[in-house]
Amino acid sequence: MSRRNGIIIALLFIILVIEIVIVAPKELGTSVADDLAAKKASEKSRAKGSDKGQSGQVMSDVHLVEAAGEGKEWELWADKAIRPKNNEQWVIEQVKVHFFADNGVMYTVTGNKGNVVPEKKDIRISGNVITRSSNGYVFKTESVDYNSKARKLDSPNAVEMIGPKDATGGELHLTGGALVADFGTNVISITKNIRAKRKIQVGKDKADRTANIQAQRAQFSGKTNEANFFGDVVIELETMQISGPQAKFAYDPRTHMLDSMQVAGGARVSDTDKFATSGSVDVFFKDDRVVFSGAPRVVQNGDELVGDEIILMDGGKKVQVSNAKAQLDPDQAPSSRQQEKR
């Protein structure tokens, strides 16, 4: 064989080897890339099947809507949802829920985790739970339970509440022992050892004063800013203390400023220079005016005033009595008495 023929044979052999290496695997579908992809898919499939066997179903970026008639009952978002094997409850993480109450009122609840029972439409949320009403109330608790049948949001834990800010930035701060929000009436009740604080502007000079409130139960509206307190109510406003079975705070709907307070059911008022009892007492903060009605009796600087209605103005410096029956202290000089009531 000549040298030239040997070179040609060698080249043909090399070309044949290359064709076998490149072409044959392509036809068989066994390229390296395909092998790696198949292996990765197989491993992923096995891992997913193992997770499902241990913990049931798992979903991420969850969005659920529960309908109620023609509208929504609630709408839920969660970072993750897990349904354990053989369990109807879903375990959810990083939760936000919109609850749709009557008359267009909405409550938004957020928390670290929770549970959903799809058949009952009940939800439990726990861990740094914050509930916000659409009219500006904020409630902080450790957990809340939503009962779909009763349409109520309930928390048996300690509650911290912050009310809507008024035009000056003031707001009601309150603590209590439990919370119930009724979505049918939009009444929010807080019970057990109520303690509250609210800054109030009094008189024409708008002097800031702080009212400290104690009660057994408090009620707030999901629609308005009205606040009610019940059971051994005690209100301290600087040197004045007012007590009675129940108290109602009325707000300006536009500015959210506290306009007035009424203590009813038998009120008692004490101050540094006066003591009073009456069926009810109304305090009008803007006018710095206190109105006693319902068999009122006011004792001030030794004078006893009885009438159908007694009104104290300018911190008690002026007194107005309807159908007055006054019993005056004979030891007090008339000129001094007139100066105090002018």
3D shape = elongated
Helix tally equals: 3
Low-confidence residue ranges: 7-51, 333-342
Q: Tell me the total number of β-strands.
A: 22
- DSSP helix fraction: 10-25%
- Which value, in Å, is the CA radius of gyration? 37 Å
The major pleated sheet works out as: 6 strands, antiparallel, barrel
Multimeric state of these chains? single chain
Q: Average the pLDDT over all residues and give the rounded result.
A: 81
| Strand residues, percent | over 45%
Q: Secondary-structure element order, as H and E?
A: HHEEEEEEEEEEEEEEEEEEEEEEH
How does this model look, in words?
- The protein has helices at 3-28, 32-55, 334-341; strands at residues 57-68, 71-83, 90-100, 106-117, 122-133, 138-147, 152-155, 159-162, 173-176, 178-182, 187-202, 207-221, 227-237, 240-251, 258-270, 274-284, 289-293, 297-300, 303-306, 309-313, 318-322, 325-327.
- It has a domain at 55-133.
- Strand 13 (227-237) and strand 14 (240-251) form a beta hairpin.
- Helices cover 17% and strands 56% of the residues.
- With 342 residues, the protein is of the alpha+beta class.
- The protein is elongated, with a radius of gyration of 37 Å.
- It has three helices and 22 strands.
What's this model, at a glance?
This protein is α+β, with helices and mostly antiparallel strands and 342 residues long. The protein has three helices and 22 strands.
